[in-house]
Amino acid sequence: MNRGSFAANATPARYRKTGLRSYHIDYRGVLFGNDKGGALANDSDVVIDTCALFGMNDNERCTIMAMRTLQGAEMTYAATWGNGNYCLIPQLYISGLIDMVLGTSYKHGYLFEVKLTVKPTPGFQVYGWPEQYGVTGRLSFFIDQTGVLRGGDHGGYHAEPTDPPIN
To answer: What is the pTM of this model?
Structure first.
């Protein structure tokens, strides 16, 4: 896959007077940063989850987007490299279909898991649930090849395919 590349950096105009953190982002869309003493940040610095900065409601909103991203990545994988078959999260990252943070199965204070089925036809289920129930989120999510996102409050456990749809 041929990707364009870019990188952008931001540092405090006057270290300690206008800020402490330096930031770095590149073509992967992952934000990195740290207190670098005014020096440039790079992709070996701490990953900054922009959703996790703003609390539980934003974590849940961003997790909904991540669930849809995983579902779309699965569909793309099956239609291209997978020859009709789906794959697990690490393969989605290796294929360039998801970002490196989501490729760790953890993002926005949520844990993610893909389960594959083969009978009667290939399929998948994506689950997302809060790492710390009541702190990083309350809702758990489920999506599969149908594209219907479902979820509910399961006390920090997996959502179910029978949960109500979420718009």
So the answer is: 0.74
